[in-house]
């Protein structure tokens, strides 16, 4: 492989954030919670593979859309100015071709599911494609992101059970709230830049009450997941997972009490452990039945 080709592939990896898998994990955890709950234990390996591969492909494509939409904003934000499109190391035409390729691959993967799941996947694709533009006029784009990221939950239930029970919709609501939590921490890193260039975020919306709002959202998410556990009769291991998640939440609030940019970013990253703790709790709870 030539040096020029290696350099190009490296830029494409940066464009799709394959070097930063946290976005894949935050999108994947709710799908895994839903798959385990819907299957009442270990889901069918084929379904598990479809959701994992589909998550990687759609998140990568979503990053391209985001950077295309923000390519004139990103050069003015400290954290994003070196992204390939912002730094003009990748042309928009290249990014569009790569986006189309990834979406075609994602379509090929999702076509392995039933027709209802395929229709839901089209809604997910529309949500992911339009999310980058809502921050121009919507003061809480994190809520829209939560709906986009959470759409894997009803998809998983439909793929396994053919329908979404009340507990599934509660899990979806918890996922939407979770995205508002971790993406508010993420937005706190860019708060000054976003205010200057006129982009909306919950960090700006909540203002000096940002940590109070995050704490209330964390409480709401745990309450929703507690209700899921009651409806599904998950038992003690699920509640231990909730306790571990609550501990992580408390650590995040304490670490960000001074609103230091690095601490806010670490709090965002720490939500991976929240997702893991909840998955382990659900997984063990369903295995004990």
Strand content: under 5%
The helix fraction, in percent, is over 70%
Distance between the amino and carboxyl termini: 52 Å
Low-confidence stretches: none
Counting DSSP E segments of at least 2 residues, the number of strands comes to 0
Main sheet properties: none
Which word captures the global form?
Answer: globular
> Helical segment tally?
13
H/E series, N to C? Answer: HHHHHHHHHHHHH
Structural class, from helix and strand content?
mainly alpha
Mean pLDDT: 93
Whole-angstrom Rg = 19 Å
Written overview of the protein:
By secondary structure, this protein is mainly α. It has helices spanning 3-15, 22-39, 45-69, 92-110, 115-134, 141-150, 152-161, 166-189, 191-197, 202-206, 210-232, 236-255, 261-287. α2 (22-39) packs parallel to α13 (261-287), α3 runs antiparallel to α4 and α7 (152-161) runs antiparallel to α8. The longest helix has 27 residues, at 261-287. It is globular. The termini are far apart.
């Amino acid at each position: 492989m030539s040096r020029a080709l290696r350099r190009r592939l490296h830029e494409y990896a940066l464009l799709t954030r394959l070097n930063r898998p946290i976005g894949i994990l935050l999108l994947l955890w709710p799908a895994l919670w839903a798959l385990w709950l819907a299957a009442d234990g270990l889901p069918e390996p084929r379904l598990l593979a479809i959701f994992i591969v589909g998550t990687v492909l759609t998140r990568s494509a979503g990053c391209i859309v985001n950077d295309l939409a923000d390519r004139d904003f990103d050069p003015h934000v400290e954290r994003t100015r070196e992204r390939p499109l912002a730094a003009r190391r990748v042309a928009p035409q290249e990014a569009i071709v790569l986006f189309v390729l990834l979406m075609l691959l994602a379509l090929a993967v999702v076509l392995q599911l039933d027709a209802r799941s395929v229709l839901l996947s089209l809604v997910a694709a529309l949500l992911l494609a339009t999310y980058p533009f809502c921050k121009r006029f919507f003061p809480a784009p994190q809520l829209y992101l939560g709906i986009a990221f959470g759409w894997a939950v009803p998809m998983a239930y439909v793929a396994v059970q053919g329908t979404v029970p009340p507990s599934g919709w509660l899990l979806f609501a918890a996922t939407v709230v979770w995205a508002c939590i971790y993406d508010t921490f993420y937005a706190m890193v860019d708060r000054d830049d976003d205010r200057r260039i006129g982009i909306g975020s919950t960090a700006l919306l909540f203002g000096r009450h940002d940590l109070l709002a995050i704490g209330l959202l964390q409480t709401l998410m745990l309450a929703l997941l507690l209700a899921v556990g009651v409806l599904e009769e998950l038992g003690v291991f699920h509640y231990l997972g909730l306790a571990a998640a609550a501990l992580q939440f408390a650590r995040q609030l304490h670490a960000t009490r001074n609103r230091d940019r690095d601490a806010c970013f670490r709090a965002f990253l720490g939500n991976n452990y929240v997702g893991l703790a909840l998955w382990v709790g659900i997984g063990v709870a369903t295995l004990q039945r």
